[in-house]
């Protein structure tokens, strides 16, 4: 038999998926993969039920159905602060498909693309598919700041685009207006595109404010905004996302969307229209719910002196596992699943730098589940105090 493609060798099984498989095998609580443990709002479930009795069972228009694109355009207009037209919106199969279709449309093999590290690993895989070369720029310190000179240096190397995950998975950073202005200034100066991933735009804590990069002066024309219904409405399985961009760019992205998917699922598109029309109170409640979960989870860590970062957005926390003495975060993550029934993701898969002292946990869980996780962490901490954790034997 002839060899399979060289391209397929660029990929290894995702660590997140691997941790989920391990978690299932050991019946652990899965805090690794990124989906909420609760249902979408009842309006969406009712709309879906009603759809089963309609005639919307065939292909939708490739761009997405008019009603949904109109509702998305209205929502984006509110966020961007100016009029976004339905023709500047493409409904995709999740933000995941939106991002790869965007990269296919804008980047050629050999083009350079800037990615902040730590990063959501699908960006590097997308770059590999497209044949683009990532230039990683580190986010440093407890606020995950980038160094302006380093960023400019990356643009100076001829980057054609930058990927901005805001709020950022895995570190929970929400970019400030000043930071976005620096990115915007450099993108304009060096004539680069920006692809944003804003799937956590409504999961924000405290006074942090999510600002759409496309809303900054002169940025709409060079920004492709990828986002999703997955996290905002707790329906990751519906696979609905959308891309907002100037028509001339979107027209090209659409061709790849067509080849990859034909269209997003028709009955789900019809069912989702109502969500895009939710008022401010829906997003305020979402923020309240996630703030309570974050505080519950972080209190459990603080009570046990387990060091962690302070997420400004998203539903992830990076915990620092240095005190357990493991040299390998992967080995520690396996110990957590097998012995303590908690699945997290070893941090090394999110970093370009040589980091292996973090485990990422997702706290989009019911309160009872979070309390059970706290009890399991307590047992871990007890074992550490009593010298029952022996990294040497597995490291
Ligand atoms: C940063 C980020 N972008 C995109 C996605 C996937 O979004 P979607 O379900 O819309 O494809 C995830 C899911 O975990 C994510 O964390």
Please provide a written account of the structure.
By secondary structure, the protein is α/β, with parallel strands linked by helices. It has two domains: 7-40 and 281-384, Aspartate Aminotransferase, domain 1; 57-278, Type I PLP-dependent aspartate aminotransferase-like (Major domain) (Aspartate Aminotransferase, domain 2, 3-Layer(aba) Sandwich), CATH 3.40.640.10. Helices cover 41% and strands 13% of the residues. It has twelve helices and twelve strands. It has a seven-stranded mixed sheet, sandwiched between helices. α6 runs parallel beside α7. It is globular and about 65 Å long. The protein starts with 14 loop residues before the first helix and ends in a 10-residue tail after the last helix. Pyridoxal-5'-phosphate (PLP) binds at residues 34, 94-96, 120, 165, 169, 197, 199, 228, 230, 236, 241.
Would you summarize the structure shown here?
The chain is α/β, with parallel strands linked by helices and 395 residues long. It has two domains: 7-40 and 281-384, Alpha-Beta Complex (Aspartate Aminotransferase, domain 1); 57-278, Aspartate Aminotransferase, domain 2, CATH 3.40.640. It has helices spanning 15-25, 42-51, 66-80, 94-106, 122-130, 148-156, 177-189, 247-261, 266-276, 280-303, 329-340, 367-385; strands at 29-30, 89-92, 112-117, 133-138, 161-165, 193-197, 223-228, 241-244, 316-320, 342-343, 345-346, 358-362.
């Amino acid at each position: 038999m002839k060899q399979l493609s060289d391209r397929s060798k660029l990929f290894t099984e995702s660590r997140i998926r691997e941790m989920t498989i391990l978690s299932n095998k050991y019946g652990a609580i899965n805090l690794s993969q990124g989906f909420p443990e609760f249902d979408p709002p009842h309006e969406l479930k009712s709309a879906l039920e009603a759809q089963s009795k309609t005639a919307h069972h065939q292909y939708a228009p490739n761009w997405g159905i008019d009603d949904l694109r109109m509702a998305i355009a209205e929502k984006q207009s509110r966020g961007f602060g100016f009029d976004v037209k339905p023709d500047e919106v493409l409904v995709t199969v999740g933000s995941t498909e939106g991002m790869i279709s965007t990269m296919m449309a804008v980047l050629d093999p050999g083009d350079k693309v800037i990615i902040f590290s730590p990063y959501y690993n699908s960006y590097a895989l997308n770059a590999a598919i497209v044949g683009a070369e990532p230039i990683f720029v580190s986010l440093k310190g407890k606020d995950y700041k980038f160094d302006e000179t380093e960023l400019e240096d990356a643009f100076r190397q001829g980057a054609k685009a930058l990927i901005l995950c805001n709020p950022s998975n895995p570190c929970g950073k929400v970019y400030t207006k000043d930071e976005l202005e620096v990115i915007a200034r450099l993108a304009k100066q060096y004539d680069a595109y920006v692809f944003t991933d804003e799937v956590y735009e409504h999961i924000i804590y405290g006074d942090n404010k999510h600002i759409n990069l496309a809303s900054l002066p002169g940025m709409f024309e060079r920004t492709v905004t990828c986002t999703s219904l997955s996290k905002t409405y707790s329906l990751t399985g519906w696979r609905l996302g959308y891309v907002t961009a100037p028509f001339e760019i979107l027209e090209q992205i659409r061709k790849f969307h067509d080849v990859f998917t034909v269209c997003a699922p028709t009955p789900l598109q019809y069912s989702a229209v109502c969500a895009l029309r939710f008022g401010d109170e829906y997003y305020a409640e979402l923020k309240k719910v996630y703030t309570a979960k974050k505080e519950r989870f972080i209190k459990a860590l603080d009570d046990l002196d387990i060091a962690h970062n302070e997420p400004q957005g998203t539903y992830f926390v990076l915990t620092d596992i240095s005190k357990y003495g493991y040299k390998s975060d992967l080995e520690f993550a396996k110990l957590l699943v097998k012995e303590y029934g908690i699945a997290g993701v070893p941090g090394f898969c999110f970093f370009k730098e040589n980091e292996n002292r973090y485990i990422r946990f997702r706290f989009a869980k019911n309160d009872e589940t979070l309390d059970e996780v706290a009890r399991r962490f307590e047992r871990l901490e007890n074992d550490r105090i009593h010298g029952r954790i022996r990294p040497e034997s597995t490291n």
